[in-house]
Write a structure and sequence with these properties.
Blueprint lengths: L11 H7 L11 E7 L2 E3 L4 E2 L3 E3 L4 E4 L5 E4 L14 E9 L3 E13 L2 E11 L1 E7 L10 E5 L9 E8 L4 E5 L2 E6 L14 E3 L1 E3 L4 E3 L1 E10 L5 H10 L16 E8 L6 E18 L5 E18 L7 E10 L2 E4 L3 E4 L8 E6 L6 H13 L4 E4 L10 H11 L3 H4 L2 E3 L9 H6 L9 E5 L2 E6 L10 H12 L4 E6 L24 H4 L2 H6 L4 E4 L5 E4 L2 E2 L2 E2 L8 E5 L17 E5 L3 E8 L2 E8 L4 E8 L4 H9 L18
Parallel strand pairs: 25-26, 26-27, 29-30, 30-31, 31-35
Antiparallel strand pairs: 1-2, 1-18, 3-6, 4-5, 5-18, 6-15, 7-12, 7-18, 8-9, 8-15, 9-10, 10-11, 12-13, 13-14, 16-17, 19-20, 20-21, 20-22, 22-23, 22-24, 25-37, 28-29, 32-35, 32-36, 33-34, 37-38, 38-39
The protein binds fe (ii) ion (FE2) (2 copies).
């Protein structure tokens, strides 16, 4: 317990006294919580996860944010200082993570950034402030990051101060970073949860994995001398030997993303900050590329380029940290097929639950040895929960994703969480992107963001589609523009339905105009292939229609269909499944198979007679000759 070995610690009685300011308009000058056994005293209003007593301070599991002092900054419990503020903590990090929090109150979601927090990214401390003085409609945060790393398992004294003019970050009594980017009072939207021991907002919940000794909030910006004295009061903590397991191991063994004709991304996560290097070899054993990342980190996204198109390679990752070295197993990948090369891909969606199903679908996909895996979103159930990625998604998707690169779109369950962007290595701006594979271009869309007129994304989509010269064009977005589902967009057993996602519907005219062949979606946990559509009319595919495929059968609980067929509804199946496609020489062979590998839908699209190109040109008032064999829009004389 505190006090016995370290008599200088503030006693619990004092803490209660310091809480006297609650309810008054004036924020208390200082509020301090200190570890007593397995608790922080004074106890916050909610204790959210298991807390195990440590020798010094409280040992926290890292799963979720353990202490929520108040759910919302606005609820009046907290009179949080805004003009002059100091956040302080004595902490020890056992396991660095991409985002970690110690004390603060933030919302950092997309472009809306408000609040204040003391935390860490990987093994670097940060102090984050969003202020009223920054001209940004929904707030912009400065993450002031210290260059000096925290020593894993050691106690550190961290302090962030803000006086309305400058932000300062102190580590073990010394200033390590300063910024004047923010000015004026701290900006709060009112939605910020005031938390201790985690990084917690609407999208994210990362608990501190390590130990927490003491935290404080002060309504003054302490000067360097006061901070040094506060560090000195307990400095013997900083010289205690580390109490942590620093065994280097794979948290996420290597997997593949973002295939290109000359490049591949390899993503890996390890247990302690490490340097990594990726060695890529030709099949004859000769080294084709070695890429090293020397800055120690737990999560690495390594882009290997300079490779040859449509070529098989072996790869291996070596991680070195804390005096240890580990090597991954030898794996393979194939770089992307170029124009004219045949290739195959598998499309799946909604692997968010039922791990056994996810594993069966992924194994079945791997059995087909596709070149590429396209994922229609809802990879995980909770995008901000690291364990959903490390314990569910990645293990169940193996060996598929360590041999076949994955290209996903964001589902609603990803919650736009930073972990999606950390783990997935994708072309800019990642939230949406396009890529080429063989004779196809894929347009990967964020269906959670506006696709309305003049939205940033619809402008991008229009220009990306216009710039595409690919034979085959596929759109992928999580929410289906068209679906015969029973109850997601109405209640078809008793009434009407909008028949699809209204925001996603915004893209259909562009898909029609630019000759997208198939639009893949997830979200509605079933399988559906519509008749080809232009507007809401069924038009044969080789006369220009767009086929909408819902492939949301990766594991999410199955949903149901309208009891009567829709006008556009064609093949439907209430089954876990995958879609398999092969493309060669103007022909697309499409199959859907269930989790037992039973084929339940087959389709062949053939462009060799040029009919689709002629019909599409005719819709634009352009007459082209249906010469055979040609499937180009421009006739060859
Ligand atoms: Fe889903
Ligand atoms: Fe969904």
């Amino acid at each position: 317990m505190i006090g016995s070995s370290m008599p200088m610690f503030v006693a619990v009685g004092t803490l209660l006294h310091l809480f006297g300011g609650i309810g008054s308009l004036e924020p208390p000058r200082e509020r301090r919580w200190t570890a007593v056994g397995a608790s922080l005293e004074p106890l916050p209003s909610e204790v959210r996860t298991d807390v195990v007593a440590g020798t010094h301070g409280i040992r926290l599991s890292g799963d979720r944010t353990p202490f929520v002092v108040s759910r919302r900054m606005e609820n009046g419990l907290e009179a949080f200082p805004r003009d002059h503020v100091t956040l302080e903590g004595w902490i020890s990090i056992d396991r660095p993570s991409a985002w970690g929090g110690i004390i603060g109150a933030i919302q950092d979601n997309g472009t809306a950034e408000t609040g204040i927090m003391l935390g860490y990214r990987e093994d670097r401390p940060f102090f984050a402030v969003s202020s009223e003085g920054v001209a940004d409609v929904d707030g912009r945060m400065t993450y002031l990051v210290g260059r000096t790393p925290l020593v894993i398992g050691n106690w550190h004294h961290l302090v962030g101060t803000y006086d309305g003019v400058s932000m300062k970050l102190f580590l073990d009594g010394e200033i390590v970073a300063e910024s004047r980017e923010q000015s004026g009072p701290v900006r709060f939207s009112g939605d910020e949860p005031f938390v201790i021991g985690g990084y917690f907002d609407q999208d994210e919940d990362f608990g501190l994995d390590g130990r927490l000794r003491e935290v404080s909030v002060l309504s003054e910006a302490l000067d360097a001398e006061k901070i040094r004295r506060r560090f000195e009061r307990q400095r013997e903590l900083a010289s205690l030997p580390p109490e942590v397991d620093t065994t280097l191991e794979w948290d996420v063994p290597p997997f593949l993303c973002w295939p290109a004709v000359d490049a591949m991304s390899i993503v890996v996560e390890v247990s302690v900050p490490s340097a990594v290097s990726v060695v890529v070899r030709e099949v004859d054993g000769e080294v084709a590329a070695t890429v090293s990342r020397q800055t120690p980190a737990t999560l690495h996204d390594v882009r290997v380029d300079g490779l040859s198109p449509n070529t098989k390679y072996f790869y291996q990752v070596v991680a070195e940290g804390f005096g240890q070295r580990i090597e991954s197993d030898l794996k393979t990948f194939r770089t992307a097929a170029g124009r004219g090369d045949p290739f195959t891909f598998v499309a799946i969606g909604d692997t968010q639950s039922q791990p056994a199903v996810v594993k069966r679908i992924a194994d079945l996909a791997y059995e087909t040895r596709p070149n590429l895996l396209v994922h229609a979103g809802d990879l995980v159930s909770t995008g901000g929960n690291r364990r959903h990625w490390t314990d569910h998604f990645f293990p169940n998707m193996r060996p598929l994703i360590e041999r076949v690169p994955i290209m996903p779109v964001l589902g609603n369950h990803e919650q736009d969480a930073s972990l999606y962007y950390e783990y997935m290595s994708l072309p800019e701006p990642e939230r949406w992107y396009a890529f080429s594979y063989g004779d196809a271009d894929f347009f990967m869309i964020d269906g959670n963001r506006s696709l309305g007129d003049q939205s940033e994304q619809i402008d991008w989509l229009e220009s990306a589609l216009a710039a595409s010269d690919a034979e085959w064009k596929f759109a992928v977005l999580h929410q289906p523009p068209w679906t015969s589902d029973s109850d997601d967009y109405g209640d078809t057993f008793v009434g009407g339905s909008r028949r699809g996602d209204p925001n996603a519907r915004n893209i259909t005219s562009l898909l029609e105009e630019h000759g997208v062949d198939i639009c893949f979606s997830g979200h509605v946990h079933d399988y559906e292939r519509t008749f080809p559509l232009i507007g809401d009319e069924v038009v044969p595919w080789d006369e220009g229609g767009v086929i909408y495929v819902t492939t949301a059968g990766g594991g999410g609980s199955l949903e149901n269909f309208d009891p009567a067929n829709t006008v556009f509804g064609h093949r439907k199946a209430r089954r876990h499944h995958l879609v398999y496609c092969g493309i060669h020489d103007g022909i697309l062979e499409f199959q859907a198979m269930d989790e037992q590998g039973r084929l339940f839908d087959v389709l062949t699209l053939d462009k060799r007679d040029g009919r689709r190109a002629v019909a599409r040109a005719a819709r634009r008032g352009v007459e082209i000759s249906p010469r055979s064999p040609t499937w180009r829009d421009a006739p060859v004389d």
